[in-house]
Amino acid sequence: MNLRTLTSLHFCACFSGVLAEAIEPIMFIGVGATLGRQIYHYLRESCNSNWIDFNAKGLKADLDSKLFGQHIATRIILKAVNGFMTNNNPKKPLVLSLHGWTGTGKNYITKLIAENIYAEGMKSNFVHVFTATLHFPHQSHYIQYKSQLQQWVKGNVTNCERSMFIFDEMDKMHPGLIDGIKPFLDYYEKLDGVSYRKAIFIFLSNAGGDSIAQTALDFWKAGQQREDIELKDLETLLSLSVFNNNKSGFYRTSLIDKNLVDFFVPLLPLEYKHVVQCIIAEMKAREMKVDEKVADQVAKDLIYFPKSERIFSIKGCKTIESKLDYYV
């Protein structure tokens, strides 16, 4: 039975936590014990197929309908995640590095991936988010952070091999800290008895965003379509720019030097029409009546670059929720 069909079982959500806690210590004898364990695992998230079940069609549908203006990222994410999750014997963890300006969809992509792998989505106990300014705030403590990070990753993968780790604000992380988990991302069958090959590591960074935006602007000035931009136009430029940026968490990192990042995923700056799509999607999510005039007003209220042409939204879709509140 898949967890997503559990609604047919008439468990009251308000008592599920109480039931789970009550069932755990009470192990009935014989058949009762087996039944008790089954109910417990249905009520409490566990590292099994009831709670971790990749939905390839769902991910494709979400990327196609909810992520706007990102034809390169959509294609890479879908192929990378689908190929990895359907491989029963991967040789290494999946390692993705997402780069682009604020509001282009980096965090949103991780949310869509999580929601199509874990029944609990981003709330899953097997999805772990690290934010540089929150979890690693003091640059001088990075050696201590490195040790703690290693233990944290090891402990969580030991608990569930299908764990997902998200590292946000990589551009604000101490250079060298991320090298602490380099062995976990390599082609080792096991390290101290633990296999990391089925884990997913995702890095999010604004670093390289200016290079991506400049490439998109060059295409626009040359009269070329946005959709003509390909990964090959950006990937090498992107990896080199973050590798040589001494303010980036990837500065001179062995992750890049040893080619352990499977894909550098560029997120293109969003144009006016993409911002409008984001606003309309937000209206639908709030179950509001779609008002294109309001969407147009909100989109026009944002700041665009370059100032004269107003082509790309500086903050993408980052502030549309608060802007929409103002207009409605």
From TrEMBL:
A GO MF term: ATP binding
Record keyword RNA-binding present: no
InterPro entries to which the protein is assigned, alphabetical: ClpA/B (IPR001270), P-loop_NTPase (IPR027417), TOR1A_C (IPR049337), Torsin (IPR010448), Torsin_1/2 (IPR017378)
Domain of life: Eukaryota
Keywords assigned by UniProt, alphabetized: ATP-binding, Endoplasmic reticulum, Glycoprotein, Nucleotide-binding, Signal
Torsin-1A C-terminal domain boundaries: 270-327
GO BP, sorted A to Z: nuclear membrane organization; protein localization to nucleus
Predominant subcellular localization, coarse grouping: endoplasmic reticulum
Range of residues in the leader sequence: 1-20
Compartment(s) where it occurs, according to its Swiss-Prot or TrEMBL record: Endoplasmic reticulum lumen
Residues the entry annotates as binding ATP: 100-107
GO cellular component: endoplasmic reticulum lumen; nuclear envelope
Family: Belongs to the ClpA/ClpB family. Torsin subfamily.
Name listed for the protein in its UniProt record: Torsin
Organism: Cynoglossus semilaevis (Tongue sole)
